[in-house]
Write a structure and sequence with these properties.
By secondary structure, this protein is α/β, with parallel strands linked by helices. Helices cover 33% and strands 29% of the residues. It has one domain: Nucleoside phosphorylase domain (Rossmann fold, 3-Layer(aba) Sandwich).
Length: 237
Amino acid sequence: MTPHNNAKKGEIAKTVIMPGDPMRAKYIAEKYLEDYKLVNDVRGMYAYTGLYKGKEVTVMAHGMGMPSIGIYSYELYKFYDVEEIIRIGSCGAYLKEMKLFDIILSTAVYTESSFALTLNNDLCHIAYSDEDLNIKIGKVAYKNDIKLYRGMTACLDCFDVYMTDVNKFFERMPKGVEPIAAEMEAFALFYIAKMLGKKAACLMSVVDSKYIKEVASAEEREKGLDKMIKLALDSVL
């Protein structure tokens, strides 16, 4: 056990699906897993381990922001022998053609954050997802006729909707960095996975956009993301 996870060694599967919201983790376990068990409830960051089509999987929430997912993913990889994590979350779209609940697979993440410098004395601002996991996800998406946007995304230290001027953020980006969406956790996950020799991927559903007025409600965010959830689960079989 760790200060943030009271699961015993062996109660966490080698494969972990990580939504941000603890209630989404509960929803996934109840809807998709068989013989599941609550294995962590510290700080209400629920983790459930059960079977998905015969494969042992853990679904665990990671909270909001890089510091939060950084703690949970580091401990899962380092102390619970987890081999692969797929983050499933929400994001803001940066492409005009994207609609609410379109699905994005992040191939790389750019951040302005000093996360890597603070954690590992590394002036790193771009981290990459695992190619093997991405290939598996892509194959499942193709098989099930799911449109999948692939590309670099941005990982922010604040909710981009609350930025005083998002255009200033775009102006500061290095040459060649053109994110198609933004969220708040994937850089930390990808960086830690690389640092510890593990695998990580990130699927996201669009819940807001700089180009459309609609914003997904809290209930829609919790329960309206089933296509992405099932894509992640099927990809780890």
